[in-house]
Design goal:
BirA Bifunctional Protein, domain 2, 11 helices, about 350 residues, two-stranded antiparallel ribbon, elongated, alpha+beta
Length: about 350
């Protein structure tokens, strides 16, 4: 009786397995027939009713049936997996002869391009590029630059203070002080320091609370104003071209004395006067001057033995002049219509 039940179970299971159409159905059949609570186990629970002579015979038959079903299940599983893979490959077949989807290429941001151009010009003149922290101590940002706590020039740079003694730097000049300290009184010093700076300005066409500066510093024996003017003229002609006029006029900065500003003839009107240059024919490009003796002394240099000059420029301003951009916000709004114009820069 039990032999017939086992043979019938085998035939039923084989038919069901061969008819399975997917792996999930096959998994359910494996549990149904060979699981711990499956039908084969249920049949074998009646082994206790068999005689001692029948038990080994039926046990061997049951074991043979289990092995047969496991083999059939494995073969069917392999066949279904292969069929599923072939169907997926057929469904996901790619026609390599079709034209590809074009992807737009990025380019260097115009501000980055200007920084690289300025760096290359000054590196060619023997300058090194230095960097410093954007979160700075008040001493480096102001006091070491000849602006003590009560100095009125601090009001010209409304600052983002974190504590009473720590702020977001308002200029890259602190890098000059840190460089001088690192040199420990040794000369020559020839460096530029590009970087982001922060001031509490209302954002408009010509102002931003965050912008980029590049400052330069030279300290050595016998450094003169004429060397400063020659350096800046060489830079300006390489940056803007030989067909422009340049002039220097007196100015004031607390960390240089004497101080001056450098102007260039307007690129729009050629010096005739227009809206861009406010009818003056000139556009300011940078500020400069001879390093104040107090700055040298605070940085560990003997001001009677050494002299130096410093200069600083706004990268955004240089880029606006060079490329004819009339709104500083174009640099930060990520408008692709603007940025695509600089793919060849």
């Amino acid at each position: 009786m039990m032999r017939e039940r086992l043979e019938a179970l085998k035939a039923e299971a084989e038919q069901a397995i061969q008819g399975a159409k997917d792996l999930e159905t096959l998994k359910q059949l494996r549990v149904k027939y060979l699981g711990k609570k499956g039908e084969l186990t249920a049949v074998l629970r009646g082994m206790g009713e068999l005689s001692a002579e029948e038990r080994p015979v039926i046990g061997k038959l049951a074991n043979d049936i289990r092995q047969t079903l496991e083999r059939i299940l494995d073969e069917k599983e392999t066949a279904l997996e292969k069929a599923a893979m072939e169907a997926r490959l057929k469904e996901e077949t790619i026609d390599v002869t079709l034209p590809g989807v074009p992807r737009p290429l990025g380019s260097i941001h115009p501000l980055t391009a200007v920084i690289q151009q300025v760096e290359n010009i000054f590196i060619g003149m023997g300058f090194e590029v230095a960097e410093g922290p954007e979160v700075e101590k008040d001493w480096y940002n102001f006091e070491a630059l000849n602006m003590p706590k009560d100095h009125p020039a601090r009001d010209m740079q409304d600052s983002f203070y974190i504590t009473r003694e720590i702020l977001l730097r308002t200029q890259t000049s602190p890098v000059q002080v840190r460089t001088l300290q690192a040199k420990e009184g040794k000369v020559p010093v020839r460096m530029i320091c590009p970087g982001k700076v922060y001031r509490r300005d209302d954002d408009d066409a010509t102002h931003s609370h965050q912008f980029t500066q590049i400052e330069g510093l030279v300290v050595d024996r016998g450094v003169s104003m004429s060397e400063l003017k020659g350096t800046l003229l060489a830079f300006a002609k390489q940056m803007f071209g030989e067909d422009h006029e340049f002039r220097f006029r007196p100015s004031y900065f607390p960390f240089t004395e004497p101080s001056m500003e450098m102007d260039m003839s307007c690129m729009i009107c050629g010096g005739e006067g227009c809206r861009i240059c406010k009818e003056t024919g000139w556009i300011e490009i940078l500020g400069a001057g001879m390093v104040h003796p107090n700055v040298l002394e605070k940085s560990g240099y003997n001001a009677e033995r050494y002299t130096g000059f410093a200069f600083g420029m706004g990268v955004e301003r240089i880029a606006m002049i060079k490329y004819g951009i009339d709104d500083i916000r174009h640099f930060y709004t990520n408008d692709l219509r603007v940025l695509r114009q600089f793919q060849s820069v």
